[in-house]
Amino acid sequence: MALSARSIYGLCFSVAAVAIVTGSIFAVRDYVPVLSLGVLYLPAVLAVAVFFGLVFAVAVSIASMLAFNFFFLPPVHTLALRDSENWFALGVYLVTAVVVSELAARSRRRAAEAQQREREATFLADVSGILLEAEHVQNRLKDVAAAAAAVLGVRAPRIELGSVRRSEPGEASADLQVGDRYVGRLFFAAGQSPRPAIAERVLPALASLLAVALDRERLSLAALEAETLRRSDAVKTAVLRAVSHDLRSPLTAIRAAGEGLDRNDLRLDEHDRAGLLQTITGEAARLERLVTNLIDLSRLEAGAARPRPELWTGDDLVGRALETLGPAADRVAVELPDEPVAALVDGAQIERVLVNLLENALKFASQEAPVAIQVRGERDELLIEVRDHGPGIPPEDLERIFEPFEQADDSAAGSGLGLAIASGFAQANGGRIWAEPAPDGGAVFTLAVPAADVPAPLRR
Amino acid sequence: MEAHVLVVDDEPQILRALQTNLRGAGYEVTTAATAEEALSAAAIGHPEAVILDLVLPDGRGTDVCRELRRWSSAPILVLSAVGDEHEKVAALDAGADDYVTKPFGMDELLARLRAALRRAAPSTEPVLEVGDLVVDLEKRRVTVGGREVALTPNEFELLRFFAQNEGKLLTHRAILREVWGHAYEVESHYIHVYVSQLRRKIETDPARPRYILTEPGAGYRLRAPS
Fold first, then answer.
1. Is the pTM of the predicted complex or chain greater than 0.90?
2. In angstroms, rounded to a whole number, what is the distance separating the alpha carbons of residues A262 and A306?
3. Neighbour order of strands in the sheet with B212-215
4. How far is Cα of residue B44 from the mean position of the Cα atoms in its chain?
5. Of B82, B192, B196, which is closest to A295 when you measure between CB atoms?
6. What are the start-end ranges of the H helices in B119-171?
7. Which DSSP category does A244 fall into?
8. Which CATH number fits domain B127-222: 3.30.365.10, 1.20.1070.10, 3.40.225.10, 1.10.10.10?
9. CATH classification code of A310-459
10. What pLDDT, in 10s, does the model give residues A377-412?
11. CATH class of A227-301
12. Which residue of A has its CA nearest to B187?
């Protein structure tokens, strides 16, 4: 049988202790009555009892007694135990050995226990930490399993939540269970089972932590879903309202005009017919704009409006917006910077932003007071300003107007979607929009997006 | 002359409206509602132009484009809807000549159709004139309204390609391939900056371009100002 390192140390220490004490007594026996020196073996017994336990302590007690007897007690160099004193000394050594080693062993056990508890507490604290900051419990299971393996003393750990898998050959498992609720299973390499006392404490605690984390994750998902639903509900309500009014009125006009043209019993001259036709095309265009806005808004609300960034210059973006505006663009005064400023944005989305800002501003434009759009680069941003000469916006409404279906002036035409869409697309492109009163009356809407460098090879 | 136009769309209302309007404009019209019908109608009738919806019940318009291009050079005009941008570009790259976005105006569709029918092979003239814009390919000189414009070599190549394909929609990919070569095909967004710079040189008001028009999500088109 191989001796453990600890027993070898114990053996060496014990032999050395007895030898040293014997040597010391030998050195001082001429000055001190030898009989009283027997007490010097006690520290050796004590030390061995404290560090190496009962077996070694008893062995040292006997060895001490024998050595004392053999070397110092007459008749010297015999092992005869004639006097009751010797028996008494042996008795004292043995009692000391038993009591002290038991006390030491107990305190060692306590210390080990305390250390294990501390490891377990640290482990549980670590796991709570990991799970608290985890967005998805599943993503952190590896870390949790590794920590559990360290505290349980097992290898190749793996936690499977809600697993129905049984352990395979070469694999052992422990259930993670809180009361009646089965949370999952901890798998580990077979061969090293955790100590039952530790497993009994650690596994249920681990299971509770996982259960709480899972519940929390589910709740936050549910909350997110509820919030999304609430928002989409708000959008639906708003859309319904828009549908009932804003979609119906152009439809009504188109239908009335169409039926008017269709009937033979109406006296319509060329002028009337042209008017009705104009109603149809005009109202169809209005419907088209509204439908485009509703689609944009629902895509933005659904988070589906992912931009496809390309390098556009301010010139281009304004140009595209003016082209889309059609004839109304004649009432817009444009100011471009001397050197083109570029930005990495989705051209179509920024075009929507500018068209919506311009359409909003054009409600107040006149021949004498056109809408102005100005492009400039400022610090690291491409700024596009749209300035109108309308009544301006009350300070308390400066932010509200970017909410869907909100308008500073409720009487104004349109469903109030334009600014919300503009703001949504601006944000999707890493930019922002704000409104402020213009110095000379009216309002200024500014779009700011991060400016991009024009790559050097392109300057050629 | 009555040009023969094949109209492909699975919406009967749109098909009827297009048919009526096109007949009224003097075209001979054949209709088809599916990809299969479209291909057989094209094989039998040899239309001079095709108006093709991108979304068909039995396939994608892009595949019809590709199939048609194998044996027909008739111009193809695709009808795309908002949200189809990707498909639209795919169709243009597969051989379609132009597109209109639904809902479209009839005037616009007719203008595009006329232009497509009129357009022949790219011009090989040494001096190209588009409105007031004159591009002399031999001398590499460009004038706008008689005033000479200094262009960088890349800008000149870009303008040459536009001028040789006057009126035709040029996709980003086609422009990159022609002007910068294959290696640059991926970096399509540099084009916008180049076009922007070119516009600053040849347009009177770069924010209201009259020559080089942006076709959102698809490419550019050089057109004589109306």
1. no
2. 45
3. B169-171, B219-222, B212-215
4. 26
5. B82
6. 153-164
7. I
8. 1.10.10.10
9. 3.30.565.10
10. 988 999 999 998 888 888 888 887 887 665 544 444
11. mainly alpha
12. A310
